[in-house]
């Protein structure tokens, strides 16, 4: 009976580790996508700043 329980515990542990591995992989992909989005947002902000610098000061907010 103990041997069966040990095998069952090992199987359940292995499955839990596999599920955790999938979640960690998905999290890594999400973080990479967020980094790309952040870079894109930074590029847009830089473009807006560049345009703002070209405007006459009377157009800029006080």
Please write out the topology.
Layout: H1 2-54
Could you characterize what this model shows?
The chain is 85% helix and 0% strand. By secondary structure, the protein is mainly alpha-helical. It has a domain of 34 residues. The longest helix has 53 residues. The chain is rod-shaped and about 80 Å long. The termini are far apart. The mean pLDDT is 91.
State the gist of this model:
By secondary structure, this protein is an all-alpha fold.
| Principal-axes shape call | rod-shaped
Distance between the termini: 79 Å
Please state the CA-atom Rg, rounded to the nearest Å: 26 Å
- Counted beta strands: 0
Q: Unreliable runs, pLDDT <50, ≥5 residues?
A: none
The amount of helix comes to over 70%
The H-and-E topology, N to C, reads as H
How many distinct helices? 1
Q: Structural class of the helix and strand makeup? A: mainly alpha
Q: Describe the sheet with the most strands.
A: none
Q: What brief labels describe this structure?
A:
single chain, 62 residues, mainly alpha
């Amino acid at each position: 009976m103990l041997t069966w329980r040990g095998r069952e515990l090992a199987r359940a542990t292995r499955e839990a580790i596999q599920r955790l591995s999938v979640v960690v992989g998905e999290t890594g992909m999400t973080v990479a996508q967020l980094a790309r989005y952040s870079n894109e947002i930074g590029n847009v902000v830089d473009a807006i700043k560049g345009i703002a610098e070209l405007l006459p000061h009377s157009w800029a907010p006080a």
